[in-house]
Fold:
Amino acid sequence: MITLITGGAGFIGSNLADGLLSLGKKVICLDNFDDFYDPAIKRRNILSSLSNSSYYLEEVDICRSKQLEAVFKKYPIDIVIHLAARAGVRPSLFNPGLYYNINLIGTLNLLEAMRKNNVRKMIFASSSSVYGNNKKIPYSESDPVDNPISPYAASKKASELLCHTYYHLYGFDIIGLRFFTVYGPRQRPEMAITQFVRKIIKAEPIQLFGDGSSQRDYTYIDDITQGIQASIRNLKGFEIINLGESKTIRLINLIKEIEKLLGKKAIIKWMPNQPGDVDITYSDISKARRLLGYEPCFPLQKGLELFINWYIKNNS
Structure:
């Protein structure tokens, strides 16, 4: 089986590719190495994979439909794992057009390339941000998600709707996975846990937005990649499924956990709440358990310890 991973050089994509290659699968990494963060980081992510004869790199932008279609003509692709996106809630407030072009039009281009080349299987990366500030917790896939509070969240919900359209019209098998704050080795440098670890080590101030009471459901990368692999095995029809840890921690308590593991105190610079940020993310993973056999194995303290050890080893 040949698996195409869009955004395959990124945080989740490169970890997933490693897992699939270890199972003897053929993987096509499709990435445009954009400058949202240093492209050299993404090239380091895939360095070991490039020596594997079952790994193929295509430097292609999903917003360029002709480039995409050429990849589908070149390889007999069996399934697409669509992870490519412009990420980040706060930056989306300042350039919403860019987010819609990449996240929605890019997804449309991909679905069209699949349709034209008779590829009918996709795992799509959505986001817990689609739940907005829903009052009911934990968040369930059956909850209404009609009130996103950032352009990023809206672009992800719109992409879910587009995927459902292709399931309905063309018989695609699609699972949309709503990821809940993924962390671990290779996490993007601007994300909270990486920032906190880096700045505590360097004795630099951490900007803490709000009063520290916001809560997140942090999910370790290995749990996410196992959830994606289970989705591949159980791909049929159309489903939206949460992948999270199904536990929450307050932001200030997260920093305290990192302080303990590093043996250093954080320097905190308190900042006002940011528009677009949600108060809490908290996943109901009963559907993932039922349909995928998903069971997260990395509680936060264990995941943080693994990540910090990796970070220190790779950023000395």
